[in-house]
Amino acid sequence: MASKSLFDHIKAITNEQDPNYWDKLDDGDKKTFSKYMVYRFLSMNPDWIDLLSEIQPYLQTLEPKYFYTTLINIIPKGRHYLKYIKGKKETKYESFLIDTIVKQYQCSTRDAHEYCDILYSTKEGRESIKELCEMYGVDKKQITKLKLKL
Description:
Number of helices: 10
Shape: elongated
Number of strands: 0
Radius of gyration: 25 Å
Largest sheet: none
Structural class: mainly alpha
Number of domains: 2
Distance between the termini: 59 Å
Helix content: 55-70%
């Protein structure tokens, strides 16, 4: 039998709420129980986030068995849709553009991202990006990837 996944554990907390669930798990299933990930998914429910944030300092020190038991006593029983919200994608700009700006202005990549924000905000700035790329010999196909809207 396959070991339990994160979603099996979350289902046990929200749908089943069996007080003996932890005792029925074998060692392999217990290893797949991540308090951090369970908490992360449960906090995706906007109705629970205030409560979970208040009790979080107390729950993080509990053993997984007691962590589970506490959650089944707090979370309402039933089927709940927990939409996972991903973090924003960090690569907003093409890496070759960032490298080019770092070379030209001799700055950090963090500063280069800020320069891109500023340059993209105006038509003149976008034209400067195009000229800079041409000056450094960036291929025209690569420049079209930048979506400069000139």
